[in-house]
UniProtKB/TrEMBL annotation:
Keywords: CBS domain, Hydrolase. CDD domains: CBS_pair_DRTGG_assoc (cd04596). It holds the Pfam family 4HBT. Residues 256-314 form the CBS domain. GO terms for molecular function: inorganic diphosphate phosphatase activity. It comes from Filibacter tadaridae. Gene3D superfamilies: CBS-domain, Hotdog Thioesterase, HprK N-terminal domain-like, Winged helix-like DNA-binding domain superfamily/Winged helix DNA-binding domain. This is Cobalt-dependent inorganic pyrophosphatase. SUPFAM superfamilies: CBS-domain pair (SSF54631), HprK N-terminal domain-like (SSF75138), Thioesterase/thiol ester dehydrase-isomerase (SSF54637).
Length: 435
């Protein structure tokens, strides 16, 4: 049986795109408290099926597919530029395909504008009206207003016309940053991208017998299966090892592993894979916030996803990418790493930041471990201390030294030098795992 929370989410998903919703409306329609309705609407916002806009309200929007995540809705543009809606509120949920800066003659400008575009322009009323008639929304910069005729036209066409106090250059920079950030987000694989959905997941009820499990298990190649209640709530997991030697009349709930390690659909694949390796398990159930089974992922799913991700072209660089790209290998000293301190790696004092050094040390240590032992490693704990500030522009060398290596762990000591002088020290404990 579905919970009130899930019923509200289904209700919201059933609303038309562009429809406004409120806590009071949802509470009245489904006979729930305002608090329950509020929490469900916040969850719908996290799932990107609604968007809350200041002075406008909460609007049902179309959930963007991952491959189109680099597109923004006009509602998101409104929030980014801290704008005011002058007209066309009914179109805030729509997605823009591109933005055009109107710093040219009208005839030249119109060659670049088509339906779904966003024209960024000042108080040029003719350009604003022409863009709306072409099917494009308008972003008016410099805090200018629009005429009443243009506002009325925007309402009729359901194409937003937004005013912002920022200048054109600043607005374009802000939108570019937002699109770039979403390109980075696009690269991050989530569990929901690779899970086997509930409809295709083989599961057992806790009151079924070991005999039923054996019959199903013989027909598949799986090593484990989730165990649920009639409501669909996950209560355990059963593997071949659990059932071996048990009487066939024994109930599954008596032999299963209770409180299994689970993941949610929004967890990153990298995090889920790390948990699998750390705990030594091959299968993990995927659950909702209320503990209901949503599907499963296997270690094989994670490995395939990681291999696919490595083959994809780079879309956007994270800070980690920028920092790691500075590392060079010193000729004739393969263990030593060299880098130059660039502005992105500094703190407010203009010296190398603790976070950047952490990333550089982790990467240099990983390389050293790989050269000694084939396989992967994950840092478990780390100790770092600076002896001197490492200034912007400094050329720095990291010299890792493996102190001890066992089957599961390795300790690495680091000397960090600049201009031949020791400027920092560190020690990292890595956990090892085979490929």
């Amino acid at each position: 049986m579905a919970t009130k929370h899930e019923l509200i989410l289904r209700y919201i998903e059933g609303l038309s795109v562009g429809e406004k919703i409120s806590v009071r409306q949802v509470a009245k329609a489904l006979s729930v408290s305002d608090g329950t309705a509020y929490r469900a609407i916040k969850e719908a916002e996290n799932q990107k099926i609604v968007n809350t806009i200041e002075r406008v309200g909460t609007i049902r929007i179309e959930k963007k597919k991952k491959e189109n995540i680099e597109r923004l809705t006009f509602a998101e543009v409104l929030n980014i530029v801290d704008g005011t809606v002058l007209g066309g509120r009914g179109g805030l949920h729509k997605t823009l395909t591109k933005f055009v800066i109107g710093a040219m003659q009208l005839d030249d400008m119109m060659r670049y504008i088509d339906a779904g575009s966003l024209l960024i322009v000042g108080n040029r009323f003719k350009a604003q009206k022409t863009a709306l008639l072409t099917g494009a929304a308008v972003l008016v910069t410099g805090g200018f207003d629009a005429s009443e005729d243009i506002k009325k036209l925007a309402d009729e066409l359901e194409l937003p016309i937004i005013s912002t106090s920022y200048d054109t250059f600043t607005v374009a920079t802000m939108l570019n940053r937002a699109i770039y950030d979403q390109l980075i987000e696009k690269e991050i694989l989530l569990v929901e991208d690779i899970l086997t959905p509930l409809a295709e997941t083989i599961s057992f009820l806790s009151k079924e017998t070991v005999k039923v499990f054996n019959e199903v298990n013989h027909k598949t190649t799986h090593t484990g299966f989730p165990v649920i209640e009639h409501s669909g709530k996950l209560v355990g997991i059963i593997t071949t090892r659990d059932a071996i030697g048990k009487p066939e009349t024994e109930l599954i709930e008596k032999v299963m592993t209770r409180r299994p390690i689970t993941v949610t659909a929004k967890m990153s694949v990298a995090s889920a894979g790390h948990s699998m390796i750390w705990e030594g398990i091959d299968l993990m159930p995927v659950v909702t916030d209320t503990g209901m089974l949503a599907g499963i992922i296997s270690r094989q799913d994670v490995l395939k996803a990681m291999q696919m991700a490595q083959r994809q072209p780079q879309q956007g660089e994270t800070i980690d990418d920028i920092v790691k790209n500075q590392i060079k290998t010193v000729p004739d000293e393969p263990l030593t790493a060299e880098f130059t301190v660039i502005p992105q790696m500094t703190n407010q004092l203009g010296s190398l930041s603790y976070g950047a050094l952490t990333t550089l040390l982790t990467e240099a240590g990983n390389r050293a471990v790989k050269m000694r032992k084939r396989g992967e490693s994950v840092p478990e704990n780390m100790t770092i201390y600076f002896i001197k500030h490492i200034q912007l522009g400094s050329v720095v060398f990291i010299e890792p030294r493996i102190l001890h290596m066992s089957r599961r762990f390795v300790k690495v000591d680091f000397d960090i030098l600049s201009e031949g002088e020791l400027v920092a020290k560190a020690m990292i404990m890595y956990q090892l795992f085979e490929r």
